[in-house]
Specification:
The chain is of the alpha/beta class and about 250 residues long. The protein has a single domain, classed as Rossmann fold. The protein has eight helices and twelve strands. It has a seven-stranded parallel beta sheet, with helices on both faces. Strands 6-7-11 form a three-stranded mixed beta sheet. Strands 8-10 form a two-stranded antiparallel ribbon. α1 crosses α6. The two termini are about 30 Å apart. Bound molecules: NADP nicotinamide-adenine-dinucleotide phosphate. NADP nicotinamide-adenine-dinucleotide phosphate binds next to α1 and β4. NADP nicotinamide-adenine-dinucleotide phosphate (NAP) binds next to α1 and β4.
């Protein structure tokens, strides 16, 4: 049996963080729900020293939504530097951070530039770490369908897609945090790979939305030009279990 651990979940009130907190608690571990609303702020450093005292691991699933590249790079880079410094000072053994598959190849997209700054800050911190890079969440399909809609048509990039359920992401992060640091990156993706177009079609059909969906090779990924494999793992990956159909049914 795994020894009971204290794990601090930065972004513990969010979609992934709240699931990770519950999984940790259900398994008998002490989970700290950390977010600016709970007085623990990764960007300013407020409350970090107290929250990290006695912790064995940190899971960072904090987030900032913006289209401003500099603001994103600053938020993710500064937060990661603050967290890893505070962890080293507190003697925390393992920093686990959630990033995105192929973030390094997609840095023309401002959000990916922020995630890359986050990864670089963690990897150069001297703190033991695991970077878990996930594909897009099933829960993100609605946002994607909306973002690619114009004039009654949904026009999406002509690329592969392999989304993963938030439940599977949270489970993989918890497993990583309770394990040994990899001091490297691991990819995480859903159980099915198909075209971006087909996943959006499935999602819209389930919502009773008959708008046409077309794949178009000239459509980019929010500022980053993409190739067929840009959003899917290029090699080994941890496979999630929940299909989009199962998630839609639930
Ligand atoms: N969407 C996708 O498909 C996808 C794919 C792969 C990876 N990811 C990554 O998944 C991660 C988690 O996403 P999510 O959807 O779970 O996010 P979310 O629901 O938006 O939650 C974000 C969390 O971050 C907290 N937060 C924001 N600023 C903070 C700060 N300065 N200090 C501490 N906590 C802070 C928020 O709480 P407060 O507001 O109270 O601070 C909230 O708990 C993100 O890093 C994202 O890049 C997303």
């Amino acid at each position: 049996m795994t020894k009971m651990k204290k794990v601090v979940v930065i972004g513990g009130t969010g979609l992934i963080g709240s699931k990770a907190v519950k999984l940790l608690q259900d398994a008998g571990h002490e989970a700290v729900t950390a977010s600016s609303r709970t007085g623990i702020n990764a960007y300013t450093g407020e409350g970090l020293a107290d929250a990290l005292a006695g912790a064995g691991a940190v899971i960072d699933v904090s987030n900032m939504m913006s289209f401003d590249r500099q603001a994103l790079v600053d938020f993710f880079g500064t937060s990661s530097r603050n967290l890893t410094s505070a962890e080293k000072a507190a003697g925390v053994r393992h920093h686990v951070v959630l990033s995105i598959v192929n973030a390094d190849q997609l840095a023309a997209n401002p959000y990916m530039a922020g995630k890359l700054a986050q990864e670089e800050a963690v990897a150069s911190s001297g703190q033991a770490y695991t970077i878990v890079r996930a594909t897009q969440f099933h829960e993100f399909l609605e946002t994607l369908a909306g973002a690619y809609s114009a004039n009654g048509v949904v026009k999406v990039p002509d690329i592969d897609f392999q989304p993963i359920a938030a439940d599977d992401v949270a489970a993989a992060l918890v497993e990583a945090a309770l394990g040994e640091p990899r001091n490297g990156t691991v990819d995480l993706a859903g159980p099915e790979r198909s075209s971006f177009e087909s996943f959006i079609r499935t999602y819209l059909d389930a919502k009773g939305d008959a708008r046409p969906v077309h794949a178009d090779a000239s459509v980019d990924y929010f500022g980053a030009s993409v190739l067929a494999g840009s959003l899917v793992p290029g090699g080994d990956f941890i496979k999630g279990r929940v299909t989009v159909a199962e998630w839609l049914k639930a």
